[in-house]
Specification:
It is a single chain. The chain has 307 residues and is an alpha/beta fold. The protein contains 13 helices and ten strands. Helices cover 42% and strands 13% of the residues. An eight-stranded parallel β-barrel has the order 1-2-3-6-7-8-9-10, surrounded by six helices. A two-stranded antiparallel ribbon has the order 4-5. Helix 10 runs parallel beside helix 12, helix 10 crosses helix 13 and helix 12 packs antiparallel against helix 13. It starts with 37 loop residues before the first helix and ends with a helix. Bound molecules: ribose-5-phosphate. The site of ribose-5-phosphate has 14 residues, from strand 10 and helix 11.
Length: 307
C-alpha cells in the first residue's frame, strides 16, 4: 500500500521533509563543465578526481599508429600492475578488449580515430569506433587527434566534431588531442591556438604538450581542462619536473605513457607522478619517492627470488 498521508508514514511517525533546509545548488568542480548534463559530469568525475580536480591518465594507445612500441610489447603484462595507481586508462578498443581485465574496473578514455600509421602521413585519420560501441565497452570518454595546421586539419577537426555530436547524444565526453604536425613548433602560440580551436568546437577536455615559456597562457586561453602528454622518454627527474610545472601553471593532470611504462620502475614512477599531480609534490621530493619505492620493490623481488 502506498503511504497516503502527507504528514505521517504508515507507522504514524512524522515524515521529515527537511522544511527550512534549502536544496543545495552546487557548481561542478571542473573548469568549463558546469553546464553539462548529468551523464557527462558523472563520466568526467570518474576520470578527474573530484577532490583534487585532477587526473593521472595512463596512456597506452601508442600501438594504434606505432605497432608494438617499446614497453608495450605485452599490454597484458605491462598495464595491470600500473592500473591501480592510474585514475583512468587511455587505450584503443582492441587493446581494451583483448588485454585489459574488466575486473580492473578503471574508467577508460577510448581512442576512436584510425586510418594512419607512422609509415605514412599521420594526419590522415577517420573515426573507427562508434560512440555506441564505446558505450557498450563502458568508456568514460572518447578521443581523436586534431592536426591543426597540418595536411589533415579539416578531416581531423571533422572527426572531433563527429565524436562530439555523437557523444552528446549519449552523455559521452570527448577528449581532443592536439597532435603536432611535422612542420609545427610546439610553442605556446601554436599550442594555444590548437587547444582553443578544439575547445570552441566543443571537446570536453584537451590533451596537449607542455611548453616553456607560455604554458600558463595556453591553459588560460582554453576554457576546458587541459592534461599534458608525456612525450618521448626522458630522465625521470625531467618528466616529474615537466609534470610539476604543468600542474603549477594550471594543468588538470597528465595523460602519460612512455615516461611511465618505459621508466626503470614503471610502478614506482606512476606513484611519483601521482604525488606531483594530486599532492603538488615538488619534483625532487617525487624523485625521492620514486627511488625509495624502486629500492623497496627491488629488495622485495630479490627476497622473493631467494625463497
Ligand atoms: C600517441 O600515440 C598517443 O596519443 C599517446 O597517448 C600520447 O602521446 C601520450 O603518450 P606519451 O606520454 O607516451 O606521449
Amino acid at each position: 500500500m502506498p503511504d497516503a498521508s502527507t504528514t505521517s508514514n504508515d507507522k504514524g511517525e512524522q515524515k521529515d521533509f527537511g522544511i527550512g533546509i534549502p536544496v543545495e545548488t552546487k557548481g561542478f568542480f571542473l573548469k568549463g563543465s558546469a553546464h553539462l548534463g548529468w551523464g557527462m559530469q558523472n563520466r568526467l568525475s570518474r576520470i578527474f578526481n573530484p577532490e583534487s580536480g585532477r587526473a593521472v591518465m595512463l596512456a597506452f594507445d601508442h600501438g594504434y599508429i606505432m605497432g608494438p612500441t617499446t614497453g608495450l610489447e605485452r599490454i597484458d603484462l605491462a598495464i595491470p600492475p600500473l592500473a591501480g595507481y592510474a585514475d583512468c586508462l587511455m587505450c584503443s578498443r582492441g587493446a581494451l578488449q583483448s588485454c585489459v581485465p574488466p575486473e580492473l574496473n578503471k574508467p577508460v578514455v577510448m581512442r576512436a580515430s584510425t586510418g594512419a600509421t607512422v609509415l605514412k602521413e599521420l594526419s590522415n585519420e577517420v573515426i573507427g569506433v562508434t560512440v555506441e560501441d564505446a558505450v557498450r565497452l563502458n568508456a568514460s570518454a572518447v578521443t581523436a587527434q586534431a592536426y591543426v595546421g597540418a595536411e589533415g586539419e579539416r578531416a581531423s577537426l571533422a572527426n572531433l566534431a563527429y565524436l562530439i555530436n555523437e557523444g552528446n547524444r549519449y552523455g559521452m565526453p570527448t577528449l581532443g588531442v592536439t597532435a603536432v604536425g611535422k612542420e609545427m613548433v610546439r610553442d605556446s602560440r601554436y599550442l594555444g591556438l590548437a587547444c582553443r580551436v578544439i575547445a570552441e568546437l566543443g571537446v570536453h577536455f584537451v590533451k596537449t604538450y607542455y611548453c616553456d615559456p607560455g604554458f600558463d597562457e595556453v591553459v588560460a586561453g582554453c576554457p576546458v581542462p587541459i592534461v599534458i602528454a608525456g612525450g618521448k622518454k626522458i630522465p625521470e627527474i625531467d618528466a616529474l619536473t615537466m609534470a610539476y610545472k604543468a600542474i603549477d601553471q594550471g594543468a588538470s593532470g597528465v595523460d602519460m605513457g612512455r615516461n611511465i611504462f618505459c621508466a626503470d620502475d614503471p610502478v614506482a614512477m606512476i606513484q611519483a607522478v601521482r604525488a606531483v599531480v594530486h599532492k603538488n609534490e615538488k619534483p625532487e621530493k617525487a624523485l625521492e619517492l620514486y627511488n625509495t619505492l624502486k629500492c623497496e620493490r627491488s629488495k622485495a623481488c630479490a627476497c622473493a627470488a631467494s625463497k
